[in-house]
């Protein structure tokens, strides 16, 4: 005798708890298998932007593509691609700023006990680009002597002396000095004169 085929269109009633549990387990297994096969897994790292969305990815790609096309036609300033690129870049920037601000507002509204101190630190800290907030040790010369500035006060003095040298001594000006005559303003310089000087 051959095998009897299973008719998937045929519905059978669930009569007891065991049958319900089996069907629920099969359904959950099918859903999990579909999730594993179809949904891309994003890896969250410390550098991940949690406010980034698919819309931002599409806008970024569109702005970059139009930017490349605009650059290819950079000699034709009247071409429509320049206006399209400018509008796409503006839209991307506005959307990016909106998502960042919205993420920040949502996080502040949902902040709870352990994160409240982090929120306070973020809001009260001075603005920074996350770089080192100190100047490294400075080596400088005074005459022939090499010196090292380690404290902030000494570093400030060394930097001020390096960037702002002392004012030169004023020479006594005599009013009877013989200066050459002032140039006339309408003198034309020719290409031959320039070539002669080069």
Number of strands: 2
Based on CA atoms alone, the radius of gyration comes out at: 37 Å
Helix content: 40-55%
What's the N-to-C terminus distance?
A: 106 Å
- Mean pLDDT score, rounded? 82
Poorly predicted ranges (pLDDT <50, ≥5 residues)?
1-6
Instruction: Label the overall shape.
Output: elongated
Class computed from helices, strands and strand pairing: mainly alpha
Biggest pleated-sheet summary? 2 strands, antiparallel
Q: Which assembly state applies to the chains in this document?
A: single chain
User: How much beta, percentage-wise?
Assistant: 5-15%
**Major sheet: arrangement of strands:** 1-2
| Element order: H for helix, E for strand | HHHHEEHH
Number of helices: 6
Structural account:
The chain is mainly α and about 200 residues long. It has a domain at about 55-110. Helices cover about 50% and strands about 5% of the residues. It contains six helices and two strands. The chain has helices at about 15-40, 55-70, 80-110, 115-125, 150-165, 190-195; strands spanning about 140, 145-150. It has a two-stranded antiparallel ribbon. Helix 2 runs antiparallel to helix 3 (about 80-110). The longest helix is centred in the middle third of the chain and has 31 residues, at about 80-110. The termini are far apart.
């Amino acid at each position: 005798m051959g095998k009897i085929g299973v008719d998937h269109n045929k519905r059978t009633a669930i009569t007891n708890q065991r049958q319900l549990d089996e069907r629920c387990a099969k359904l959950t297994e099918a859903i999990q298998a579909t999730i594993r096969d179809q949904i891309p897994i994003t890896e969250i790292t410390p550098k991940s932007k949690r406010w980034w969305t698919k819309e931002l990815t599409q806008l970024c790609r569109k702005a970059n593509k139009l930017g490349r096309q605009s650059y290819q036609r950079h000699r034709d300033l009247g071409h429509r691609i320049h206006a399209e690129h400018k509008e796409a870049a503006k839209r991307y920037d506005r959307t990016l700023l909106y998502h960042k601000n919205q993420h920040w507002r949502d996080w502040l509204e949902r902040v709870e006990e352990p994160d409240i101190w982090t929120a306070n630190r973020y809001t009260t800290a001075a603005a920074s680009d996350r770089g080192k907030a100190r100047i490294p040790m400075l080596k400088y010369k005074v005459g022939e002597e090499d010196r090292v500035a380690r404290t902030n006060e000494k570093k400030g003095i060394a930097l001020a002396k390096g960037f702002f040298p002392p004012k030169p001594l004023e020479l006594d000006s005599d009013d009877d000095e013989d200066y050459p005559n002032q140039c006339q303003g309408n003198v034309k310089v020719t290409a031959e004169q320039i070539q002669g000087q080069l």
